[in-house]
Structure formats: structure tokens, C-alpha cells
């Protein structure tokens, strides 16, 4: 690292790490070019010494005039003692529009005493004879809701299934919300407490990207999952989804349905509740039909929502109405799925997934430009598998901008995902503590600190309102104390058994799992249970040239050892029998201390191939594999019934 002390001081002020440890525990320095790029991502231009010194002088001046922080986290529902000041008046404007005021006199000789306040983000003004300061009050419950509080059970189980892969003669080629409701009924009949699905974020009306983890906007829903009767498409569907064909036929059906739609009172209420957020998103979708899905390629005078000419907005009004209707319809259908789950006896119902970020150039970055970072992507640092690091092509929140906007964009994404779900998984929750940014200018990546305590408080606020349990996907290189902090705020950890190993590379005994965890064996990014047992993933590594021939034997022997170890832990006899391995895994999960366990529908129905193979695009049929069994046949499946019986026999999900 250079000796550019002013630059390093400015970067540190904005939370940019001067160095970090890689997977080998080696110290990697953050270069000056990277620090400059990450500052620019926060909207801080520091191209020369004069600009750097000017920023530092502004910071010094602000610190000299402020006695109080710009933001604090307090606990809702109780009296809070803050700021040891005398002879001041204070005034709090609550999120719901109500106000409360008070005074701290010299004689009181102590902290400002705030009365009990409801959860929310409030604005506090503290005024003395010499100055007035404004503070953001993030008023949150101490913990997000727990499984026991919401379900009445100490341990539950559920099934994860890919919504897009649901096979039915009633859909246009991609699983829809009606198919999901059918699957929910079948799973509920076997005692499952929840059903997990892939992210259902808006992908963009004209966008062809299919990965559910590269959405256009996480604050809105994917209209491709809206159920529209497809009575003319009853033929048996092939193994792989043809998204292009589905899109053409499905969108035509939606357009036709809208032509005869008469706005209802509920639709008008939905639009009123969505307010400017919904209107802006719908406008983006309408404009994208003309200029394409990436706003960065639009005419420059349309790069800011505030610059859109009123005349164009008037011309697009019918299309804006259409896109509002799509969101209303998707929301209504998803709500029905959740209600159907509860009506069928599930304690929790839907378990949704919040993607780590949205696609650059997508709707979220255009609608929430006041919160996102510029000219950087989030990703991961270099490791053995990715020597150049991983660029996920997703947008990050800029900490300074996010705080200034009072977490508006984050709250909208959380609200949409929680509104019709009793459980929510936050993908790569580590990014809410620190993010790895890769600059567009080619400079190496670097870490930047996010306002973790405040973000956890915001999550707790929204989870309390929606009565949603939150699971933080905390895989990877986890900073010391991270999981403890997360759990203290009520979030659950995420354990994938095939990754859950100690420092010597041995599987940890399942009895050591922390109770505040959701445990599973596989995810959308790992081999399925059968694929793991039969080494299907290793076959793909060889096919793609990821391992040399001489490494193949080592990988095969290692997998055989892992299978034997799992069988030993499960108390099963060592054999090549897949059924014994499957039963062993299910026994390990069911009898573990984890409050929640998730089985994969792919594993129940003995699917060999994984939904996604990270590191590939066209080489592997990611997100395109359709279920072989139709969703209407789930309820009669002996394989599903056997899993339900096993869970009951082992006491999983039984009310204590």
C-alpha cells in the first residue's frame, strides 16, 4: 500500500477496508486505485489531492458542529435513555405521523428519556440554545420473531422446490402460482410445515435472463409466475424449459386477460398502497418496452426517473396501468398460495428467498438510485476455484446513500418478500456486514463495511410487522462474532450438511448443530442427494475440464470417504445402496438440534442432476430442468408419503 495518508483516512471514514484476509489467511492490501473506485461507488469523487483534502475538511467541519450521531438504534416498546445532555428540547416525528416532545433541564442532570415508541424509523430533533441536530431513530424490537413464537413448535420441517420447474399440463411451460398451490397441498398433507421456493423477484417484462438470483427489482414480483389457464397446451412437456416459447405464449395470455379487466376496488387500493414505488416501477417497465431492459442504454435524458418528460409519461399511461395490474395479480395469487398453505394445516407456509442483489441496469437501480453504488459490482474475492475472483454482476447498496435514504430500498425489498411468507431466507447475509466490490475500471476488488447493526434492526422491524422468521445464509468466510451477533437479533443460521466440516475437513457431528439454525443437505447450487452419492457433480467437473484426469481418482475416493462418514454418523451400514444413504441423511437432519430442517423435492423424487452449476452459463442447463413428475401427482407419490412418515416417526414437527 502507498503512503497516501489522506486517501486512506478518507477511505476509512467511508468504511473501506485497508486490507483483508483471503481464504488462506494471507493479508491482501487494498490498493489506492481500489480505494478511489470504492469511494466513487459511494458518490465520493476523490480524483486528486485537492478533492481528497476538501472532503476531509468537510468531514472535520461536520464533526466539529455535531455533538450527536446522525443515526442510532433504540429498542421499541420500552423507555430509552439516550444522549447525556442538559437544557435541550427534543421532538420526535414517528413513522406513522404522530409526534412526541420533551425537555431535558439542567436540574435533571442525566440522559434524554424517550418514552416507549413503536417499531419504525423515526426522526428526532434535538435543540439547544446554540444548535439544532437531527437524528434518525431506528426503533426496533430486540429480536426478530422465532419459530416457536409463530408455530408453537420447537422444531419444524419443510420442503424446498423450484417453482419454475413445476410440471403441469395447466401451465405454459413454466411452473406458476397455481401449480405451487397444488404442491403446497400435497406437502401439507404429509405434515410439512413450510414450502421453500426460489426467488420470485421481478425479472423484467422484456428481459431474457432466467436466473432467479439476477433479478431486475427485488421489491416487486415476477409476472412470469402468474397463473393463466393454458387449456391449449396439454402435451407432455420435454425435460428442459423453453423460456422463449413460454414467454411469448404466456405474455400474450396476460395481455388478453388485461383487455377485459375492469379495475376493482382492491386493485385501486393496491395501487394506492404501492404509491410512488409501484408507479415508478411500472413506468420503468413501460419504458423498457421501447428502449430495452437496461436503462444504461436508454437516451441519456432518461437515466434519472425525475427526467422523464411528462408527455412521454402520459403516452405510456395505459402500459403503466398494465404493469401495475401484473403486480396486483401476482401479489393476489401469491397471497392465495400462503393462505392455502395455512388452511391445509401448515404452521408456517411459504419460505421465500431474497436475492443478494439486483441486476445492474435493471429496474431497482433506476428506481432506487439514491441507495445503490455506482460503477461497481458485488462479488467474491479470489480463491482456489476463481483466481480472478467472482463478479456477480449485481448492484450493491452504498452505505452512505443507504443511511441517508433511511433504508427505503432495503425496506421495500424486505416488505415484498415478507408480505406473504412466514419465513424468509436472505441470500449471502454476510454482505449486510461487509460487501466485496469489484470496480468497473478494472482495479482489484475490495471490502466495504455496511451499517450492520442498523440493517439488522431494519430486518427486525419488517420481520415483526410481517410476522416472518428470518434465515441468514451465512456460508463462506464468516467474520469472528458474526453468527453470534446475527442470532442475538433473532436471525437463524443456515447449515448445508455437505459443507459443514471442521478445520481438518471432517464432517461435524450433527449433534453439534446450533439449535437456531435451518439445516439441509443440498441447495440449488450443490449436487442433489443422489447426485452427491453417485458423483454426478464430479462427472461434470471432468466434462468441463475443471479437474485433470489425475485428480479424478482423488476426488472419487474423497467422495466415497464422505459417503461412508455420513453413513457412520447416521448409524447405517456402509454400502453402495443409495436408499440407505438417503435414509441416513434424512435421519441426521430429523434428529439434529436444528429448529428447522429443509428437504429438497429433488431429493424426495430422486433427481440426479442439480438445478444450477455455479461457474457455468450455457455449459450446464441451469434453471431449465423441469420436474419429471407432474405436480398433480405429488399427492399420490409413495416417495413423498414415506418422507412424511419418517418425519412423524422421528418426532420432527410434532408439537411439544
UniProtKB/TrEMBL annotation:
GO biological process, one term: carbohydrate metabolic process
InterPro entries: GH (IPR017853), Glyco_hydro_77 (IPR003385), MalQ_N (IPR048458)
Catalytic activity: Transfers a segment of a (1->4)-alpha-D-glucan to a new position in an acceptor, which may be glucose or a (1->4)-alpha-D-glucan
EC number(s) reported in the record: 2.4.1.25
The UniProt record lists the keyword Transferase: yes
Molecular-function annotations in GO: 4-alpha-glucanotransferase activity
SUPFAM superfamilies: (Trans)glycosidases (SSF51445)
Keywords recorded for this protein, A-Z: Carbohydrate metabolism, Glycosyltransferase, Transferase
Pfam families the record matches: Glyco_hydro_77, MalQ_N
PANTHER family: 4-ALPHA-GLUCANOTRANSFERASE DPE1, CHLOROPLASTIC/AMYLOPLASTIC, 4-ALPHA-GLUCANOTRANSFERASE DPE1, CHLOROPLASTIC_AMYLOPLASTIC
Protein name per Swiss-Prot or TrEMBL: 4-alpha-glucanotransferase
Organism: OCS116 cluster bacterium
Organism placement in taxonomy: Bacteria, Pseudomonadati, Pseudomonadota, Alphaproteobacteria, OCS116 cluster
Protein's gene: malQ
Amino acid at each position: 500500500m502507498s503512503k497516501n495518508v489522506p486517501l486512506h483516512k478518507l477511505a476509512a471514514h467511508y468504511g473501506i477496508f485497508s486490507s483483508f484476509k483471503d481464504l488462506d489467511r494471507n493479508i491482501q492490501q487494498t490498493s489506492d486505485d481500489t480505494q478511489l473506485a470504492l469511494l466513487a461507488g459511494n458518490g465520493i469523487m476523490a480524483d486528486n489531492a485537492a478533492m481528497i483534502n476538501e472532503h476531509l475538511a468537510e468531514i472535520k467541519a461536520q464533526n466539529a458542529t455535531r455533538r450527536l450521531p446522525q443515526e442510532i438504534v433504540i429498542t421499541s416498546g420500552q423507555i430509552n435513555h439516550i444522549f447525556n445532555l442538559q437544557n435541550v428540547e427534543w421532538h420526535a416525528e414517528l413513522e406513522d405521523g404522530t409526534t412526541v416532545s420533551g425537555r431535558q433541564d439542567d436540574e435533571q442532570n442525566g440522559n434524554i428519556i424517550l418514552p416507549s415508541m413503536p417499531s419504525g424509523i423515526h426522526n428526532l430533533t434535538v435543540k439547544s440554545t446554540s444548535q439544532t441536530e437531527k437524528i434518525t431513530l431506528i426503533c426496533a424490537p430486540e429480536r426478530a420473531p422465532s419459530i416457536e413464537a409463530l408455530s408453537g413448535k420447537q422444531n419444524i420441517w419443510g420442503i424446498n422446490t423450484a417453482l419454475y420447474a413445476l410440471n403441469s399440463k395447466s401451465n405454459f411451460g413454466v411452473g406458476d402460482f397455481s401449480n405451487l398451490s397444488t404442491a403446497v397441498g400435497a406437502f401439507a398433507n404429509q405434515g410439512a410445515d413450510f414450502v421453500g421456493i426460489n426467488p420470485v423477484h421481478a425479472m423484467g417484462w422484456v428481459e431474457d435472463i432466467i436466473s432467479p438470483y439476477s433479478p431486475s427489482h427485488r421489491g416487486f414480483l415476477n409476472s412470469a409466475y402468474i397463473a393463466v389457464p393454458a387449456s391449449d397446451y396439454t402435451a407432455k412437456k420435454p425435460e428442459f424449459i423453453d423460456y422463449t416459447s413460454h414467454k411469448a405464449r404466456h405474455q400474450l395470455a396476460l395481455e388478453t386477460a388485461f383487455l377485459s379487466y375492469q379495475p376493482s376496488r382492491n386493485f385501486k387500493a393496491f395501487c394506492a398502497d404501492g404509491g410512488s414505488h409501484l408507479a415508478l416501477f411500472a413506468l420503468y417497465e413501460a419504458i423498457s418496452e421501447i428502449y430495452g431492459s437496461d436503462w444504461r442504454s436508454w437516451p441519456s435524458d432518461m437515466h434519472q426517473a425525475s427526467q422523464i418528460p411528462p408527455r412521454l409519461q402520459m403516452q405510456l399511461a395505459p402500459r403503466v396501468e398494465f404493469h401495475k395490474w401484473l403486480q396486483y395479480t401476482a401479489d393476489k395469487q401469491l397471497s392465495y398460495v400462503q393462505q392455502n398453505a395455512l388452511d391445509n394445516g401448515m404452521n408456517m407456509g411459504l419460505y421465500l428467498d431474497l436475492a443478494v442483489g439486483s441486476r445492474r441496469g435493471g429496474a431497482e437501480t433506476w428506481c432506487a438510485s439514491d441507495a445503490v453504488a455506482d460503477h461497481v459490482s458485488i462479488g467474491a474475492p479470489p480463491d482456489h476455484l476463481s483466481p480472478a475472483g467472482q463478479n456477480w454482476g449485481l448492484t450493491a447498496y452504498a452505505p452512505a446513500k443507504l443511511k441517508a435514504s433511511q433504508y427505503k430500498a432495503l425496506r421495500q425489498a424486505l416488505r415484498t418478500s415478507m408480505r406473504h411468507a412466514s419465513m424468509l431466507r436472505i441470500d449471502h447475509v454476510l454482505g449486510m456486514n461487509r460487501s466485496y466490490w469489484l470496480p468497473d475500471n478494472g482495479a482489484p476488488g475490495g471490502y466495504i463495511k455496511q451499517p450492520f447493526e442498523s440493517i439488522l434492526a431494519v430486518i427486525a422491524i419488517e420481520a415483526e410487522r410481517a410476522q416472518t422468521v428470518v434465515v441468514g445464509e451465512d456460508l463462506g468466510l464468516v467474520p469472528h462474532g458474526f453468527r453470534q451477533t446475527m442470532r442475538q437479533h433473532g436471525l437463524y443460521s443456515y447449515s448445508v450438511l455437505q459443507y459443514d466440516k471442521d478445520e481438518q475437513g471432517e464432517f461435524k457431528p450433527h449433534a453439534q448443530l446450533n439449535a437456531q439454525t435451518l439445516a439441509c443437505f443440498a441447495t440449488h447450487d450443490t449436487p442433489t442427494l443422489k447426485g452427491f452419492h453417485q458423483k454426478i457433480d464430479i462427472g461434470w467437473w471432468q466434462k468441463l475440464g475443471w479437474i485433470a484426469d489425475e485428480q479424478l481418482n482423488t476426488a472419487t475416493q474423497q467422495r466415497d470417504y464422505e459417503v461412508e462418514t455420513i453413513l457412520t454418523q447416521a448409524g447405517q451400514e456402509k454400502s453402495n445402496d443409495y436408499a440407505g444413504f438417503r435414509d441416513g441423511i434424512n435421519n441426521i437432519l430429523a434428529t439434529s438440534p436444528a429448529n428447522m430442517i429443509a428437504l429438497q423435492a429433488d431429493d424426495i423424487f430422486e433427481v440426479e442432476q442439480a438445478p444450477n452449476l455455479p461457474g457455468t452459463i450455457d455449459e450446464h442447463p441451469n434453471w431449465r430442468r423441469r420436474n419429471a413428475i407432474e405436480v398433480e401427482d405429488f399427492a399420490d407419490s409413495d416417495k413423498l408419503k414415506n418422507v412424511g412418515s419418517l418425519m412423524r416417526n422421528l418426532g420432527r414437527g410434532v408439537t411439544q
